[in-house]
Amino acid sequence: MWETKNRADRQSNGEHFTILGKDVTFKGIVHFEGTVQIDSHFEGEIHSKGTIVVGEHAVIRGTITAGTLISGGKIKGNITATDKVQLLKSGVLIGDVCVPCFSMEEGAYFKGVTDMGTHPWIEEPIPSAEVVPELTTRRHSTRPLLLKSDTEQ
Question: pLDDT tens across 119-149, in order?
Fold first, then answer.
């Protein structure tokens, strides 16, 4: 169900851990702190600056905004993450993803567009027509072909 747990290993830094169990069906907009594990059916918007873990039995329809998303369930909707999105082999994702780091395991299904932001592309100058030698100059520098009739003589 809907639980908030502070695990002993997480209590030292004050991070919350929330679980939406299998028997929960939820529609609406939710905001989470810390880590959340979703094993339920969800329709709407999910917002978290922390980590969202989507279990194998979860079905989500809607938008997700998170720091990190790890999914083994079914998601139909757009995802925006500030850190990374990891699609596990049991995962199905139909929708667009905007994230700097995207990974998928073999066997996962993804249909959509991935935007990984700007990349420090180094522009190389395109050679101008002046630098390329003319075709007539190049023709003279090539070797002539030997025809069969030339070798028979």
Answer: 777 777 666 655 555 555 555 555 555 666 5
pTM of the model: 0.70
2: pLDDT strictly greater than 50: no
Q: Where are the domains of the chain?
A: 2-115
Q: Secondary structure of the chain in the HEC alphabet? A: CEEEECCHHHHCCCCCEEEECCCCEEEEEEEECCEEEECCEEEEEEEECCEEEECCCCEEEEEEEEEEEEECCEEECCEEEEEEEEECCCCEEECCEECCCEEECCCCEEECCEECCCCCCCCCCCCCCCCCCCHHHHHHHCCCCCCHHHHHC
Task: Compute the Cα dihedral for 99, 102, 70, 84 and give only its sign.
Answer: negative
Are 132 and 150 within 8 A, CB to CB? no
**Chain length of the chain:** 153
Of 87, 26, 89, nearest to 60 (Cα)?
A: 26
Q: How far is CA 85 from the centre of its chain?
A: 5
Are 80 and 64 in contact by the 8 Å Cβ rule? The answer is yes
